[in-house]
Design a protein that fits this description.
By secondary structure, this protein is mainly alpha-helical. The protein is built from 19 helices and 2 strands.
Length: 469
């Protein structure tokens, strides 16, 4: 591979982008095991959950906006500015003297993290030729797998060794390193068109996302599902979403151009990404608790016991990307992955406290296999279905919808878990069974994706309706 191109030093840029993405995903989960220590130090136990929620809300709500902002101002300056905001927020988190201060700092951190979550997937697709797109996007899938398990593990280890403030302070040198690598390596051509940012649409979309996440977070726990608070939030989210869609149809500078949905690819890929995120968040967040409860593991041991999932995910994501790069068809890979996810949830839902760890390891490996086949290939399918001008908007939409699904999956599976009147070792497998019908719905959505056209019919500029290869 050529190290230096007109687009900069590609390896340096790749390292900086992936490191930024790793930091943003890690900070969704790194505080999980530190919350008791934070509550003991700062107080405010009743509000401690907002330390996680504030970050998730802001990072998810701003994700889609960053695609258009980077179209206007360029990938590199927007990514660097977001990294600076993330690093500043991390420093303020570590210096917080009260729970409200920490929540405010996490909000600022999440605003920066929205770009770190979304822009690497877009920039990497522009750094590498389309034939390598699936292989390169496999790296980002590995980042998600590593961060999903490594976050709680690192958070617990750092809290035990140096105190909870260092889970935020450690972001400073890593964030600055990501900034240096990206600044030195990333050189992408700017847009020649004058892109305007639809701030009204961004506000409507942000309100929709925040409303949905609060419904998922509070429903069944803070408020009963039929309460005025939940129904009011749900009604507001639906109303704002309708207004957002109307706005996107009428404005020439849409955050998510309606023309992208003229064909069948994004109509299936976007909801599939949302369901995939929900399954990912609803499983991997609660499995460490099961391992601790069922096998008496420590937090560190439970993190290490998730290695069958992580290693399988990372290996399969890389191999699947290489196979698609070599010319294999995407849809059979996606169909296989979604079917394997169904099997993974079935296996994990059958776990009982008396079964040896080997059965849990098998279920984890199967789940990692399915997610590895799906995670980034859904992004690639969407990217390949649109022209270059819509690449950022499409990538932001898919990654943001997946992030929204992940956040809602964590909350909804948590609400189901709260309803179980049983010990975690029995309750968590029972809740994971609800992943089976969701995974079956994912299979149905993947089946709706179009297959390849005959070679004589191909050619021309990709569009929202271009079938996959």
């Amino acid at each position: 591979m050529i190290l230096v191109t007109p687009r900069g030093n590609v390896p340096l840029a790749t390292a900086g982008l992936l490191l930024g993405m790793l930091l943003s995903v890690l900070d969704q989960t790194v505080v999980a095991l530190a919350l008791p220590a934070i509550a003991a130090d700062l107080g405010g136990l009743d509000a401690v959950g907002w330390i996680v929620t504030a970050y998730v809300l802001t990072s998810t709500a701003t994700g889609a906006l960053y695609g258009r902002v980077s179209d206007r101002f360029g990938r590199r300056p927007v990514f660097l500015a977001a990294l600076a905001v993330f690093v500043a927020g991390s420093a303020l988190c570590g210096l917080a003297a009260s729970t409200p201060q920490l929540i405010a700092a996490r909000t600022l951190q999440g605003i920066g993290a929205g770009a770190l979550f979304v822009l690497p997937a877009t920039a990497l697709s522009e750094l590498y030729p389309q034939r390598l797109r699936s292989k390169v996007q496999g790296f980002t899938g590995g980042v998600f797998a590593l961060a999903g398990v490594g976050g709680p593990l690192a958070g617990g280890a750092i809290t035990d060794a140096w105190g909870w403030r260092w889970i935020f302070f450690v972001n400073l040198p890593l964030g600055l390193l990501a900034m240096a690598l990206t600044a030195a390596g990333l050189r992408l051509p700017g847009s020649r068109a004058k892109v305007r940012i639809d701030l009204t649409g961004a506000a409507l979309l942000t309100g929709t996302v925040v409303g949905l996440l609060l419904v998922a977070e509070w429903g069944g726990r803070e408020h009963v599902w039929g309460s005025p608070a939940i129904l009011g939030l749900l009604g507001a989210a639906v109303t704002l979403s309708v207004l957002f869609v109307r706005r996107q149809r009428r404005t020439a500078d849409a955050l998510l151009p309606v023309r992208l949905f003229a064909g069948p690819v994004l109509r299936a890929a976007l909801p599939a990404a949302g369901l995939l995120g929900a399954l990912l968040g609803g499983s991997i967040v609660y499995l460490p608790t099961y391992l601790q409860a069922a096998y008496g593991m420590s937090a560190t041991q439970a993190g290490l016991a998730l290695m069958p999932y992580v290693l399988t995910f990372m290996a399969v994501s890389s191999l699947a990307g290489a196979r698609i790069t070599a010319g294999a068809r995407v849809k059979p890979v996606l169909m296989t992955g979604s079917a394997v996810v169904v099997l993974g949830f079935l296996l994990l839902s059958r776990l009982t406290p008396g079964l040896p760890y080997g059965w849990a390891a098998l279920g984890l490996a199967v789940l990692g296999l399915g997610f590895g086949l799906l995670m980034q290939n859904l992004v690639v399918v969407a990217q390949n279905a649109v022209p270059p001008a819509d690449l950022a908007a499409t990538t932001s939409a898919v990654v943001s919808v997946r992030g929204l699904g992940l956040s809602m999956g964590v909350s909804l599976f948590g609400a189901l878990l709260a309803r179980e009147h049983a010990a975690p070792a029995a309750a968590i497998p029972a809740v994971l069974f609800w992943g089976v019908p969701v995974a079956v719905a994912l299979v149905a959505l993947v089946a709706l994706l179009p297959g390849p056209r005959p070679a004589m019919e191909r050619g021309g500029t990709p569009s929202g309706g271009e079938p996959m290869t």
